[in-house]
Amino acid sequence: MIETDHNPTRVLVVDDEESQRTALAGMIALWGYSVETATDGQDALDKLAAFRAHVIVTDLNMPRMTGQELLQHLKDQAGSPAAIVQTAFGSLETALSLIHDLGAFWFLEKPVQSQALRLLIERAVAQQGLAEHAERLERELGYHGVLGEMTGGSPKMQEVFALIQQVAPSRAAVLITGESGTGKELAARAIHNLSPRRSAPFVAINCAALPETLIESELFGHEKGAFTGALERRAGCFELAQNGTVLLDEIGDMPMGTQAKLLRVLEDQRVRRLGSKNEVQLDVRVIAATNSPLEIAMRDNRFREDLFYRLNVFPVPLPPLRDRLEDIPSLVSALLADLNRKHSIKVAEATPNVLEILRTHNWPGNVRELRNVIERAAILASEGVIRPEHLPPLFHQTPGAVRPAAAVAAANGNELRIPVGSTIEHAERALIELTLEHTKNNKTRAAEILGISQKTLFNKLREYGAQDGPGAI
What we know:
By secondary structure, the protein is α/β, with parallel strands linked by helices. Helices cover 46% and strands 16% of the residues.
């Protein structure tokens, strides 16, 4: 049985010829739909008052009220059913008029082919469900500043939500940019969940987390024996996401050789497993994400220009948390609701002074850092509310203590001033944090400026996080 919102999908058959009407209704009922019939357009309007159809299959030439007049009545009504028109007197001009002017879903000539009608009903139901889903999300966005798992009522986030809603129904490639922790994967999931592909797989792969020897296998799959350790055939993320969406996270860290192979896959819409001679036809939407400017990577010959233009069809930039501090109260509420379920605790809220403290922080780790801070505080609070003493030590520095580099930079431009009496560790940390802010959290570029390896930089950041508790960096 085909269902929409847990109820059988309802189809209304409108035709003045009894034999045709009965035959169509019986055939559609065999496909698992709930069916009602009407003898003409006026009868259909009367039936729709009680039988809330998802799809109408209607004839055009009928007494009292024709199919065109029926569609005209339904055109301006919110939530009206999708209409499939069938007639013995069809023409291209009539079809275009019905589809574009009166909002019909599609047009079929008599005698109607059963498989064509069945496919059209299925597609009409899918489109109807997508429209209803998008409308619900838009209402939710307007009332609560929420889109999927993303939260934010600030103007910057409203712009992001508008971009996501515009691009989601299309097939266009999307490039999501933003600092680490801004929610790029959440944005990609929102695009997928608002698209016609939302019932198909969403597969994410982090290009920076895999060694060069494994990334091609993860992307494209491999055959048994393709390389040492390939003990069985394995599908890559493109095959796994067939009819759905692939997220290529941290695309800027993809090796150049793999970039060339990815470009070929995107252009041909075909993928070949490692060790295979056969290609698999793909129907996959690609979303890429990066926390480092790809323009710089292209300048340094670390990223292919042709691949950039293939991916950057529709850019969606995400703002850092420091540029939307007004969203912190709503973010904290959303995070607490999730953390209460995760840890089986009952933390109702954060006190106003806690929210004020959070609004004064520079948040180099963005929303991910905020989540870590709130998670630590919620566990310590356990019951009741989050108070200042539940925040990490970083948020309890005295006025004379060395502030984070970002705070120093805010007061002194790009000049770093370290008070006499500070330790080398404090000075080193302040310099690293200021450099990260200068590079917009591009750790590769920051390591180059500091003259240290990326591994050393990551070790330092982990060390600072351990000192301050969850979420410090």
